[in-house]
Amino acid sequence: MKKYIKTVLTGIMAASVLFACSKDFLDYEPEGVLSNENVATAENAEALVVAAYAGIANDDMVGPLTSMWVYGSVRSDDAYKGGGGRGDVDVVDRYEQYNLTIADDPLDWMAPRTWTNYYAAISRANFALDVINQIPDADYADKTTRQAELRFLRAHSHFVLKLLFKKIPYITEGLTQDEILQISNVIDNNALWDKIADDFLFAFNNLPQAQDQVGRADRNAAAAYLAKLRLYQAYEQNDTHQVTNINATRLQEVIDYADEVTGTLESDYGNNFLVDFDNGVESIWAAQFSINDGTTVGRVSFVTGLNSPHGTGLYGCCGFHLASHNMVNAFKTDVVTGLPLLDTFNDTNIFDVVDANGETSLAPGITLDPRIDHTVGIPGRPFKYRNTVNEAGDMIYNFSWARDPGVYGYFGNMKEQQAPDCSCYVKEGPFVGTSKNIEFIRYADVLLFKAEALIQMGQVDAGVTIINEIRARAAASTQRQLDAGASDLYNVGMYPMGMSKEEGIKALMFERRLEFGMEGPRFFDLVRWGIAEQVLNAYLAVEKTRKDFLSNAQFTAGRDEYYPIPQREIDFTGGLYEQNPGY
């Protein structure tokens, strides 16, 4: 049964509007400003923990914390910015072009806002820890558990900031404002990973394997995050972000922590992207949202509010986050083996001819991984497993749904969309929000973390066996599309045993792209592997022949792996923070 906390705080936070809280135990809205008087009570502590959970999903379209569609998808080879031309939300155009070359660009307001939003979330966690640390153990039965949850949330926030900015100050509880302003962002890369890991380790050692209230961090989530962190840490970078070594000790930790995670894959891949399966068997940890909860529009997520199909009355605005030709082509499979075309997938385009009805068809002799129809809107194929919406609207994706096909083409995004008649769906003016969870880690992640570590350590068959488990689930995920009228073009085969380490790593990298296409991890994967410059400039070389708007795009190694430290933060600390190289 859902449990609702409606506690009204009388101390801690300014009354900032919370775009995102969570269903179940997070349906609560703080009001007012806390005084320090009588704050250290178990009742107040519980409310503060709820506020800290709200903070990690308290984002919006221009300060994203949950969805990485801008930072990890558009910035990679998965997607184009989309929208109404290059000038529409032009800061994302500059991210896509790798044209953010100065740290104090007044037009760059998105990444600095994410920095601010995440440090606000960290501040909430630290304030709650300061209060809880003062409460005697005898007065607060859940004290250690709540401390562990808060340290988990703090580690999560620092982890994402590190992926985005690399050089960040690590802020803990028990510090005055003056002391915080003395914490530098200049820290050894490995040491910073360990600081984040220490918080996750505290959570791992002090949380129950599962929590009664969904959405709360548990030992399972901490183990998954430790596997993820140690995987990133294994790829050791120098000061200019180049991978110089892959640490076998860290890889073994990835395997060990992955083995601590309990979970299973959803029987159908598409379940992960439907609200009815929120907090399901594959979900390890997710941002929680709610609707019809007594607030004006619900605590729905608007972080992808710009991204719904534009040219249909079923949705709203604004046609952002469109699959690239390269992404679409990646779903080709060999007609005989059913395996991806690892080296030749992008030699020719598929679905690139639109007929008089605004639909496309696939040339003979080509088969597809069915995950394409869970990921990409393609003219002529059902959208979100539907062909109609309550007989009121056609759900066959059409060329007319594209806002600016002359610039960005006509492929849409599907995973982050819900059907317009979903009870999770709301429109505020032209913008679409939903109460669908946004996954931070799902079990497929954990499996592929382990597979990657195994292959890197030379246990190739063991890693490939895991990849094939992911592929077998993909092969079994076709019925929704076929029931909606999609033509059966699907063909997924299994990789053979006996592959070389190099072949295994290539298969692993490709599988991660197919499994998490347009979900946001792609850019961060490329940086972790040390191949961002190689892959992205090869991608751009071909895309420039397809899309004029990318004609001047160029990825610069040693700079573009990370965003600049916001200049206002450097100025605020009197120059204590050090800028990333190249800016």
Structural notes for this entry:
- It holds the Pfam family SusD_RagB.
- Residues 1-20 form the signal peptide.
- This is Glycan metabolism protein RagB.
- Belongs to the SusD family.
- It is found in: Cell outer membrane.
- By secondary structure, this protein is mainly α.
- Among the domains are: 38-261 and 526-582, Serine Threonine Protein Phosphatase 5, Tetratricopeptide repeat; 320-438, no CATH class.
- Helices cover 37% and strands 7% of the residues.
- The protein contains 19 helices and twelve strands.
- It has helices spanning 42-55, 69-74, 90-97, 110-134, 143-165, 177-180, 189-206, 219-234, 248-259, 325-329, 372-375, 405-408, 443-456, 460-475, 479-483, 501-515, 522-529, 532-543, 567-572; strands at 79-82, 235-237, 243-246, 283-287, 320-323, 332-333, 367-368, 376-377, 412-413, 425-428, 431-434, 438-442.
- The protein has a two-stranded antiparallel ribbon. It has a two-stranded antiparallel ribbon with strand order 2-3.
- A hairpin with a 5-residue loop joins strand 2 and strand 3.
- Helix 5 runs antiparallel to helix 7, helix 7 (189-206) runs antiparallel to helix 8 and helix 13 (443-456) packs antiparallel against helix 16 (501-515).
- It is globular and about 70 Å long.
- It starts with 41 loop residues before the first helix and ends in an 11-residue tail after the last helix.
